[in-house]
Amino acid sequence: MILEKNNRLYKQLQADLNQLKEQLKEETQQHDYHLFLFEELEKSNFKIGEQEKLEVEIEKMNNVELIQQNLSTSYHQISSDETGVLQQFQQLKNNFEKIQSFDKSYKKIYQRLASIYIDFDDIESEISNLIEQISFNPNELERYNTRLQTLYNLFQKHSVNQIEDLLSIQESLSEKVSRVVNSDHVMASKEKETV
Predict the structure, then answer these.
(1) Could you identify which of 149, 170, 173, 190 might form a hypothetical disulfide with 41, taking C-beta atoms 3.0 to 4.6 angstroms apart as the criterion?
(2) 68 in any annotated domain
(3) DSSP states along 34-49
(4) Rg (CA), the chain
(5) Residues 143-159: tens digit of each pLDDT
């Protein structure tokens, strides 16, 4: 009875070992391809959210003239000495500052105009900073386009459409490559069980 039980256990271990050998044989045959795919994904080093950032930067660079024109026009409309919005609000604010002591409603309007004036002053500074930051670098645009095209190619190659999916595939490939690399150790361990 014990001999029969040990014999069944031995046969099961032998079957498991044979199945493991067959599985490792298949994985070894595909190892080079899996390693290539893994290294390609690892080298690309894409991060979650990178696709959106690349697309936004490319769109901005492709429209740099339009952006510069509208920022400059807006800045001029806000900051022009005689007709600018900021100057107009300054005059409105000054008018109500002179009469605010005569009625609560005048004071309320003055306070609102003062608040709006501060906002417009901040907006003027922000627009000025944006104008200074706008630049067009054709090399940078080409680099972004190349990186985005690499991403699209990887999407197509792996039949996915999100970086998260590529990272999942990379993890799966890493496990497959590791199994083959560690297969000698696994085989030795299983063979010891059958002895």
Answers:
(1) 170
(2) no
(3) HHHHHHHHHHH---TT
(4) 34
(5) 999 999 999 999 999 99
